[in-house]
Amino acid sequence: MCIRDRYQRRVRGTDRMQMLRRGLLLARANVRTLPATAAAAHRSVSNAILHVPQPLSVLSARNLFIQTQSTPNPNSLMFQPGCTVMETGTVDFTSGTKAHGSPLARKLFRIDGVAGVFFGGDFISVTKTEATPWEALKPQVFAAVEEFFASGQPVLTESLGPSDTEIHDDDDEIVATIKELLDTRIRPVVHEDGGDIEYHGFDEESGIVYLKMKGACASCPSSTATLKYGIENMLQHYVEEVRSVEAVEYDGDDEMEGVQN
Question: I need a labelling partner for 83 at 20 to 30 A (CA). Which of 5, 12, 64, 115 fits?
């Protein structure tokens, strides 16, 4: 096939994709006429093809464009202010008494119903109490985040600890591989759900990797499934010495839990 023919086939293929996208957009205009179940299915398929994100809500606050994104944990939401929150690493605050190192976390914990605050690269995960409705809480969180970033204060006034997945000279090959997998393949996916994982060791005799779930993942009903069917399967695929992944329970005496990564 000559170069010209190949080019024309690519153009025709591009035209077909554009027609498909236009058709989906036109179909969306009529989706209200479908039954509720069919409409939901249509939106799911068309969003997947068009790569359209589905935030719960959006608020334009002065110079910020804050949007929220749901997480697998119904009591946690990701608030994305459209700017950098953490230059490096993540930090988890499990109570207001642990928030002395962050003016933003202290501000959020003053809101009734806030039970946890987690900072990622470009998002803030807020975890609420079971009894507090998001309809009452979200406007207050929006206002607090907007006011804080308008003030120009630093997110943290204390430095973070060393990275939990930093590879040390005395780490053997197995531990080094586990840390690399956690940092490069698993952690980015967990961040997308508004949380993080923290490495707490590997027992060579039992083959158990110990991890702590943080942020939205800490109290998520599906956190066990994430550990067993997601993280454990991934580690076992690459490291045959790993037999199991177990969760390290939260210690109420812990201070601000932050790591560079």
Answer: 115
Find the farthest-apart pair of alpha carbons in the chain and give their distance in angstroms, rounded.
71
89 burial type by CB count under 10 A (0-12 exposed, 13-18 middle, 19+ buried): buried
- The two three-digit tokens of residue 108, written as one number: 């959020």
The pTM of the full predicted model, rounded to 2 decimals, is 0.67
Separation between Cα atoms, residue 216 and residue 165, nearest integer Å: 20
Token pair, residue 67, equals 């949007």
User: What is the spatial distance between Cα 123 and Cα 96, in angstroms, rounded to a whole number?
Assistant: 19
The predicted-structure confidence for 10-40, as pLDDT tens digits, reads as follows 444 444 344 334 443 444 444 344 344 334 4
More confident of the two residues 207 and 62 = 207
How many beta carbons lie within 10 A of that of residue 95, not counting itself? 14
DSSP-based helix, strand, coil % in the chain, nearest 5: 40, 20, 35
pLDDT tens-digit series, residues 164-194: 888 999 999 999 999 999 999 999 989 988 9
User: By C-alpha distance, which of 223, 245, 164, 249 is closest to 198?
Assistant: 164
Tokens standing for residue 226:
């994430």
E strand or H helix at 149, and its extent? helix 134-151
Beta-bridge partner residues of 211:
199, 247
